[in-house]
Amino acid sequence: MATVLSFATVMTAVSPASAATNIRGAEPFNTDKLLMSLCNGRTGTQEGLINVDTGELRSLNNWNDIRGRWERYRGWCSYPKASSWTWTGGEQRVSDTIVNCSSGSSLSQGITSSGSTTSTTSNSVTGSVGIQWTPLKDVLSVQAGGEYTRTWSYATTKGWSKTSTLTVPARRVGWMVQRPEMRTVRSNPVFHVEAYTWNTLPFANWTTVNSWRGRGYRDIKSHGAYYDAKANVTNNDGSPVGQIVARDRAVNSGDRC
Q1: Cα dihedral 62/70/57/14 (nearest 10)
Q2: Burial letters for 26-46: b for 16+ Cβ neighbours within 10 Å, e otherwise?
Q3: Dihedral angle of Cα 209, 211, 215, 216, to the nearest 10 degrees
Q4: 143: exposed, middle or buried (C-beta count within 10 Å: 0-12, 13-18, 19+)?
Q5: Residues near 109 by Cβ (< 8 Å), separated by ≥ 6?
Q6: What are the CA-CA distances from residue 117 to residues 88, 162, 182, 187, 202 (Å)?
Q7: Whole-number Å distance between alpha carbons of 181 and 152
């Protein structure tokens, strides 16, 4: 019976994504979809069957009934960082409005800007099913984004507030917006082969190796299969990095001046 790796064990065994062999284009089927199916948030040892013509996966429960181009795999997944970059998010309103109904003078007033950090996760393969988003988020925060733990809000939510003075010109409505600095960390999941078995007709000559399809490499990835973890870049106190600026518009009938 296969043993299940503990989360702590997996953490110590992760190798860089660059160390894995990219099998995209080396098989007759969609290897991006294969990696997303194998590495859907799981980190423990898994076993199953793969059709080497179509890439379809099945459980071992079907082993005795299957004939044809089916081979057996056992291994586990890791989610190392492949790349990372920062970008400026869209403007977000972070305060109430101040209405200046005066016809000739500006209005200066204290205003509180507030909000919370955000994080999202996306994947590259359209129509992927079976992704375990909750455990995946935990895994990505440690394996892919561990070096950004103190400066990135992924997998956490933290509120923030800041008080400043806003000066609103006559007959204008003012408010504050934030332009958040965001970070994306991309992970190309890696499947680590522990055992791989196939047979030669008439199902009597079994071969078991410890590499993918007996090709000599144990760690595989597919370049087009990746997860993107996106969240705020943060200061040391956990507040989001980003410029807070004032915006205004002309008053209208809805402002009840």
Answers
A1: 120
A2: ebeebbbbbbbbbbbbbbebb
A3: -100
A4: buried
A5: 98, 165, 166, 168
A6: 14, 14, 10, 21, 60
A7: 10
Tell me phi and psi for residue 255, to 5 degrees. Answer: -85, -10
| pLDDT tens column, 127-153 | 666 788 888 989 999 888 888 888 999
Residue 165 to residue 95: CA distance in whole angstroms:
12
Residue with tokens 């923030």: 160
Which residue in 182, 183, 181, 179 sits closest to 91, CA to CA? 179
Closest CA to 189 of 56, 40, 27, 48: 40
Q: Give burial (CB, 10 Å; 0-12/13-18/19+) of 245.
A: exposed
Amino acid at 83: S
The token duo for 236 is: 């040391």
Task: Name the pairing type of β-strands 205-209 and 190-200.
Answer: antiparallel
Q: Is 239 helix (H, G, I), strand (E, B) or coil?
A: coil
What number of CA atoms fall less than 13 Å from residue 108's CA on the CB side?
Answer: 2
Name the residue type at position 68: G
Coil, strand, or helix at residue 245? strand
Q: Over the stretch 25-68, which tens digit does the pLDDT of each residue have? A: 999 999 999 999 999 999 999 999 999 999 999 988 766 666 66
Pure H helices in the chain: 7-13, 31-38, 133-139
DSSP states along 167-200:
EE-TTEEEEEEEEEEEEEEEE--EEEEEEEEEEE
